[in-house]
Design a protein that fits this description.
Number of domains: 1
CATH architecture: 5-stranded Propeller
Structural class: alpha/beta
Order of helices and strands: EHEEEHEEEHEEEHEHEEHEE
Mean pLDDT: 95
Radius of gyration: 17 Å
Strand content: 15-25%
Helix content: 10-25%
CATH class: Alpha Beta
CATH topology: L-arginine/glycine Amidinotransferase, Chain A
CATH superfamily: L-arginine/glycine Amidinotransferase, Chain A
Number of helices: 6
Length: 288
């Protein structure tokens, strides 16, 4: 029996959603997009989280920042410490300070803005015991050491090699966080990932760290199926990721498929829209 853990998320409604430029392989400004449909998908995603008993906060979107909906790229929060973001694309640069102000206004005092290019949870995945950190297309390798210093957690660097999977969160996500305690109480984290998105050396590291990982197929990855969100039991996935959903169900998880077809036109899925706030005050180990 998988046990869901209460979560706290920060999201940004796509009120000004559009695709006016190309900064990833999914974006095509020549294709029509609908802010109304994107908003409906976002509302369904937020209500899905609330239906599981999770807390969802919303930050106000800003005109001229259509990608602000992808909140995961704007902060990494572990133990109440916040490491902000520094975007590689100039079109998104202004988002970082809007999120910084939200954290400060909501009582977070340990907020650090990075000096290296760092696209936050786009390239950082907290497993409960260590921080997996992606590089290769967006986040600078130097940001990995900076994250370790700011957040005070061990960091494992992973090299992305396929431009379709330019962020770690398009190729890997955490299914269940682990914990460290007495030997009899240690819990190994579980992840799902697409091996071919990573360099050979990084694939070896992942096999060594996560021998029981759920391996995704090319079809899973091609619909952004690895851009999922899990609370330890309920796993929110794009509705096309049916193969991955079957494999997760066989492991005891409860897949929940949602429509993100409009948001995907800008290169985002459930995780991209979801910044997790890991604050001790939220009692992150509280089960539902």
């Amino acid at each position: 029996m998988r046990v869901p853990v209460r979560r706290h998320y920060l999201m940004c409604p796509p009120r000004y959603f559009t695709v006016e430029y190309t900064i990833n392989p999914w974006m095509d400004p020549s294709q029509p997009v609908s802010a109304e449909k994107a908003m409906a998908e976002w509302n369904t995603l937020a209500e899905t989280y609330r239906g599981f008993g999770h807390t969802v906060d919303a930050i106000e979107p800003e005109p001229g920042l259509p990608d602000m909906v992808f909140a995961a790229n704007s902060g990494t929060v572990v133990g109440g410490r916040v490491l902000g973001s520094r975007f590689r694309a100039p079109q998104r640069a202004a988002e970082a300070d809007h999120f910084r102000r939200w954290f400060v206004d909501h009582g977070f005092r340990d907020v650090v803005m990075p000096t290296h290019i760092n696209e936050a949870e786009g390239d950082f995945a907290w497993t409960g015991t260590l921080l997996l950190a992606g590089t290769g297309f967006r986040t600078d390798p130097g940001a990995h050491a900076e994250a370790q210093e700011v957040l005070g957690v061990p960091v494992v660097s992973l090299q992305l090699v396929d431009p379709r999977y330019y962020h770690l969160d398009t190729a890997l996500f955490v299914l269940a966080e682990g914990s460290q305690g007495d030997r009899d109480q240690d819990l190994r984290p579980q992840i799902a990932y697409y091996p071919e998105a990573f360099s050979p050396g990084s694939q070896q590291v992942l096999r060594r760290l996560f021998p029981d990982a759920v391996l995704a197929t090319e079809a899973d990855a091609a619909c952004l199926g690895l851009n999922g969100v899990s609370d330890g039991r309920n796993v929110v996935l794009p509705q096309e990721a049916t193969g991955l959903a079957e494999r997760l169900a066989a492991r005891g998880y409860e897949p929940v498929l949602v429509d993100i077809s409009e948001l995907r036109k800008a290169g985002g899925g459930p995780k991209c829209c979801t910044l997790e706030i890991r604050n001790p005050a939220d009692n992150p180990h509280s089960t539902l």
